[in-house]
Each structure stands twice: as C-alpha cells, then as structure tokens.
Amino acid sequence: LDVPVSLAEAPLGAFDPVRLIDPDFDPARQKKILPYRDAQRYLVNQVPSSVAGVHGFWKAFLGIYHSWLWQHMRIPPEQDPFDEDYLSEDDEDCRVRARDRCATQARQTHRAEVFFRLLSAVLLVWWLCAHPTGLADVVLLLSVWFVSAVVASSVASRTKPGPPPTGRKESAKDVANHDPRFDEANLTLDLFGVQHGPRWARAICTTRSTASKKEPRWRRSRRRPIATARPSGAGSRSHSPNDSDVVQPPKNVEAKFAEIHDMNCDIDAMLSTSTSNGNASNIDDLGDPCAFRDRFQRAFLASGQMHTVHCEHLFLLVTTTVVISVSLLYTLHWRRAWTGDVMRLHERYTPLTLFEAYGSPFSLSRGIEILMAFAFAWILGERLYGVASVANVAALSLRQRRRAVAFLKKSLPCINCIEGDELRNLEQAIAWVEEYTKCCDFALELSALRWVVLRTPVLLALMFAFKALVGAVVCAVFRDVVPEMLDPVMGMCLAACVAWSLAICLDAAARSNAEVRSLSDDIVHRTEHVLDRKPSMQTGGQADVLYVHLRVKAAEALRHSYVCWPGGRRLGWLEPIALLLVSSVAFACVVVL
After folding, report:
1. What is the separation of C-alpha 86 from the centre of its chain, rounded to a whole number of angstroms?
2. Taking the CA atoms of the chain, what radius of gyration do you get in angstroms?
3. Mind spelling out the 3-state secondary structure of 515-527?
C-alpha cells in the first residue's frame, strides 16, 4: 500500500484515454526523472484554450472519457522479446506487427464501447420520456450529464500545452527538448505521474513459460568464473581461478548503490540533527550555500515526498464510491420504501395499471424495466464519480504539498551570527533566506503546477454542490409552490456525492496554507535575532540598506507559495466551513420540512 501510484488517468477530461495505446507510452519510454519539469515549460505561457474546452465538452458528453473496456486489451512491451504475447521465433518485425494488432483491437473496442454507451443513453432517455413519471428523471440525468461535461471541458482547456517560453534565453538542451508532438496526454502523464523510481506501465511484463529468465551478463559471468590468461611456458596444467579472476559487477551498478547510500545519509543528516530550539544544521557548515540546496534536493527526493502512495488513493476511491452508491440508492429506491411512497403508489394506481406499466414477474417487460433502472443509476453514478475524481486528485496533490511543507519545517536551518561583524551577519542572513526560498520553491513546485490545472474544475464542482444544496433548501421551504418534480431530497443527495471529495480537498488546501503561513513566520523569526542587533557606528548607511533588504526578503519569502483560487484569493477555512454549514441547513430543511 506504500507503493507510489500515478494519478494521470484520474482527472476527467485531461486527455483522450485511447491516446495511451500509442507507442510513445510504452513502458520502456517512461523513464524520465522529474518529468513535471518538461510539462512546466508548456504551462508557463499557457492560456486556457476555448477550442480544447469545446472538444472536451463534446467528448465528455459522448462518453469518450468514461470508456475503460479497451484497457483489458494488453499491448506487449517493446523491450521484452520473451513476453508471453510474442512467439519464440518472432523477429523485430513480427513483434512490431503483434503490437500493432493489439493496438488496433484496443481502438476497435474503444469505438464499440463509445457507440454502445451513446446508444444506451439515447434508449434510456427515450424510455424515461415514455414513462408516466420519468420527466423528473430525464431532467436529473441531463443536469448531471451537463455538469460532468462542463467540468471535463474545464480540465481539457487547462491541459492543452501552451507555446514553449520564448521570452528568456534558453540553452541548447532546452530548445532540443521542445517536442512538437507534445500534447495533452504527455503533459498529464508528466505532471500527474510518478516523478522518479518505479512508475505506471500500461502492461505488466510477463514472460513466456517456454522462455528462460534473462539474467544480467555480469551475474551470469560471476556464476561462471573466467580463468585469466596463462603466461607463456605455463604448460598444459589446469588453472584454478582465484578471487581476482571472478568478473565483478559493472561500475554503474556499484555507483547506483553508492548514490542510494549517499541519499539516505543526506536524509539522516537533514532530519536527525534537530534540537529543542530548532534544527542545528546551518548553511554555513556546508561552505557554499548551493551545497545546502543540493543536499536538500537529494534528501527530499530520497524521502519520497513527491509520491502519492497507493493507500491514500485507494481510501479516497473507496469512500467516494460508497458515498455515491449509498446516496443514489437512497434517492432512487430506499427513501420511497421508508417514506411510504410505495404504499401511496399502490393506492393511486390499480394492480392492472401497474402490471401494464411494469409487466408481470419474470417477464421480458419486467426485465427491461429493471435493466433501465440499473442503467439510469449506473450513468448517474459514473458521471458523478467523474466530477468527484477531479476533487480527489486535487486533494491528493494538496496532501503531497502538506508533506513537503512538513519536510521543509524539519530541515529549516539556523543562522550563525559572528559577534562584532554586523555586515557579514546581514549578508549571511540574506543569502540564507534566498537559498531556503529556492528550496521551498523546489519542494512546492509540483503541487503548485497540479493545482494550476485543477483549481478551475474544483471551483466549478464546488459551485455545483452549493447550487444543489441551495436548491434543495428552496424546494423544501416552498414545497407547496414549486413543481412536484423538483424534489429537495434529490438535490441534497446529488450534492452529497460531490461534497465529500470537495470537503477533503478544501480541508487539505486550508491546512496547507496554514502550514505555509507557519513556515513563513518561522523564517521571519529566524531572522529577528539578526535584525535585533544594533549596528555599530562604523558600518555607516550600508547596514541600514541591508537591514531593510533582509526584512523585505524574509517577509516575502513564501508570498507566492499559497494555494489560491483563479482570482488570486487564498483558500482558507471559510470554504470548508461554508460547505459544512450549507449542507447541514439543507439536511435539516429536507428532514424537518
């Protein structure tokens, strides 16, 4: 459960899922370290694309983003000739044709599923319109369908790569890395995928039962010692190998283990030197301030703070599924039995009328009725889960941000002051603030980019929840005036399907901003003992300039590190408290009135 998991497929509308079938998503090509930096170049000058938003709306409306049956079509990896989908006598051309054949089958399955989904939706709407009491269900279905498509279009407009930056001078390496084929799928996978270490693969590598397991060459050589060349005149006597004759592992393997050992040592050095007054480590102990940044980045990556572990993702997935299932079952079926609607239905219609509408037990018409009721609940739940999944991804990204802030607070160094040298202390404190600010930017960069993509869809989902709750209150208060088809219980349950994920997301955002504010106060507090020292008369006006510079640097160190809405307003406790209060009022009005 502690394995890092990719969130690339979770945001609804981020990219066309059939794009993962293409060869550039083969596991052999997903080995970049910190791939979000490639996506960052295309998000610098990005403007939300209206064309991509319209395309995303229609794809979501047609159900393209909800297809998943094609994922059962396995595409064998490129660099595994012993895979079970290859034959023993296959050459490279045969393996390419086998991959193309599997990809074609996956695309055909995707098209068939989309067509079947669209046909089922049309038949469901036609059946509901023909039903005597199905007009309210049609309005409900189309409303949820429209909200899901709007949220998907917002995500699609934010994942459209913008033009690469041209305002600054780029190195030859950056220019060479600008891929003209970089699209929404590449950006989403780079931004929401695993950033280092083992990561997502579209197919699990499996070996044929008739193929022997391929071992590294140095391991096979180590198991079979190689004799050294015999000197001239040694005769025909046999040579017994010694330890120097055994082939050792290559240097890159030893270097890899040494690098892992150094990174673990960096974590211990960063986090185990804390005292009761703070951390004893300081930037001056490293000589060069850049050395502290390098050691911090190595320790940050080695500690796994950029990962989203599987248990967190699984918890949100299961709880969201349970909340949506219970809410829909209560709305569509359970409440009618608990509130006596079934008895009133039997009092209003005769048994003959009910048999004509629903058919006799075990008949074809009764089976169609049950199938349509199941399809109605399935489509509603699927669309609501797509909206809630966007809030879940935002919540997981903000939780990763909180862990990064906690790591920053643990590794906060102190400033050493030299008695009688105020100018040096001020310059040292300014360098300390600048260096630690760069460390903070590195630690919070990934979650900040993810939030830029998801903040507008989350805001749209929050507006949908508030409107559904307010509508439920209005329908409950003015029950005698509003039409009967506007059921307040329906609005409250629909909002509850999304409110759970939104509450977790808003809580994580508020806690993240509170922790960033606390970290900013710690930075200001560390510089106070330098600012409180009185400058000597010999320093002149230079010390005053440095005092002002240090105070401004400390106050604005984490100014742009807060989680904000699209308008620039910082998220606080107002949003989750307002959601909780409105939900409580709606529940009370629906139950009491």
Report:
1. 34
2. 31
3. HHHHHHHHHHHHH
Question: On the CB side of 109, how many CA atoms lie within 13 Å of its CA?
Answer: 17
Nearest to 84 by CA among 93, 96, 95: 95
Output the pTM of the full model: 0.81
For the chain, which ranges sit under pLDDT 70? 1, 27-28, 132-133, 164-181, 199-290, 336-350, 353-359, 416-421, 533-541, 593
Question: To 10 degrees, the CA torsion angle through 93, 99, 104, 109?
Answer: 160
For 312-339, give the DSSP string: HHHHHHHHHHHHHHHHHHIIIIIHHHHT
Burial class of residue 326, CB neighbours in 10 A (0-12, 13-18, 19+):
middle
**CA nearest 466: which of 586, 386, 368?**
586
Q: What is the pLDDT of residues 236-290, one digit of tens each?
A: 333 333 333 333 444 443 444 344 445 445 444 444 443 333 443 444 444 455 6
With b for 16 or more beta-carbon neighbours within 10 A and e for fewer, the 337-361 pattern comes to: eeeeeeeeeeeeeeeeeeeeeebee
pLDDT score, position 510: 95
Q: How many residues does the chain have?
A: 593
Tokens of 461: 């989902």
The residues, any chain, with a CB within 8 Å of residue 570's CB and separated by 6 or more, are: 513, 562, 563, 564
- Are the C-beta atoms of residues 583 and 494 closer than 8 Å to each other? no
| Residue 278 host element (H or E) | strand 278-279
CA distance 25 to 245: 43
